[in-house]
Design a protein that fits this description.
InterPro entries: NERD. By secondary structure, this protein is an alpha+beta fold. It has six helices and 17 strands.
């Protein structure tokens, strides 16, 4: 009997490790996503009044699939498709334009396809999607950049990197008034009529991008993020019943707050959620609803670029946003 119990426990742990990820291994899923949001936050600081959209999934009519777009930045004068290369080590470019990364966290040499080629490829795909939704951009309005935000990124012969690449050193030197690396299409002040046309175009562009397909996102404790697909909740039956209304067709966002009950700290948690309003972005504070569930309740989530489904305890989550 004891042999069967021990064997069963071993099989259970192996299956759990294979199918799901423990919370202490979150870095495997959060590294790239957290880098995207860190870059997005700094872009908003660099460009006052800009809009940043993270984790888009733009439909590609030619391929019949969705293409991942790390970031789209919309400023007063242009829009940029941005790919974030969170790579570390000594980076050089070979004769074919590939990036050769030596050292870094893996202490191995690896070769990466030229990221500027892939990022440029996304520009006409996004333009076609926008045009399909009634937003026609002037020629040259939408361009591309590759940002390398990892402090352990060391460029070998940085002068050979194409102008579309912003190395870590260049990234840290950018200031709010310095737009030469990320801007360059429109110079000088707008005439009144032209300024109104520009504002109207930006309004349409931002409205369209805000309703474009996106990855679901988890914000975890410690300012970590995971992009991917929300699948379901796991837990006790009464908790699942309390959370039954939290589904993407009805809810756009939820926030998790820790509370104490019956003298046991954090034994239960308060979940606030906002009913989805397809007419407006988000919901007012008066529209937030709440449920209380066990802190052991879990979110089943499939991270972007991962072959495994993960489970995250609600107590480790700050918020979750669900794409329409």
């Amino acid at each position: 009997m004891w042999v069967e119990l021990i064997c069963g426990l071993i099989v259970y742990r192996l299956l759990k490790r294979y199918l799901y990820e423990d919370d202490d291994l979150l870095d495997l899923d959060t590294s790239h996503s957290s880098a995207l949001f860190a870059v997005a936050k700094r872009l908003e600081q660099l460009y006052y009044g800009s809009k940043v959209y993270v984790g888009l999934q733009i439909p590609d009519a030619d391929l019949g699939s969705r293409q991942n777009v790390d970031i789209v930045l919309v400023t007063k004068g242009e829009a940029l498709v941005i790919s974030v290369m969170d790579v570390s080590g000594f980076i050089s470019i070979d004769k074919n334009g590939n990036w050769v990364c030596t050292g870094g966290s893996s202490n191995k040499t690896k070769c990466l396809p030229d990221p500027t080629v892939e990022t440029k490829r996304l520009v006409p795909i996004l333009e076609a999607y926008l045009e399909q939704r009634g937003v026609v951009l002037p020629e040259g309005y939408l361009s591309s950049k590759v940002i390398c935000p990892n402090p352990k990124f060391s460029a070998i012969h940085s002068d050979v990197f194409p102008p579309e690449v912003i190395t870590y050193d260049q990234w840290t030197q950018l200031k709010p008034e310095q737009k030469s690396l990320l801007s360059g299409w429109i110079k000088g002040a707008f005439h009144s009529a032209k300024k109104k046309m520009q504002e109207s175009l930006n309004e349409k562009l931002c409205s369209t991008l805000s309703t474009a397909p996106m990855w679901d996102r988890l914000e975890l404790k410690g300012n970590k993020y995971v992009l991917g697909e929300f699948m379901e909740f796991k837990g006790k039956q009464d908790d699942l019943q309390a959370l039954i209304n939290i589904r993407r067709s009805k809810v756009s966002r939820l926030i998790v707050q820790k509370i104490s009950m019956f003298g046991f700290a954090h034994s239960r948690i308060l979940v606030l959620y906002s009913p989805r309003d397809y007419r407006n972005e988000g919901a007012s504070s008066s529209e937030w609803k709440e449920v209380t569930v066990r802190s052991s309740t879990e979110v089943v989530f499939h991270p972007q670029n991962s072959t495994k489904v993960r489970k995250y305890k609600l107590s480790s989550i700050s918020s979750m946003s669900l794409s329409a």
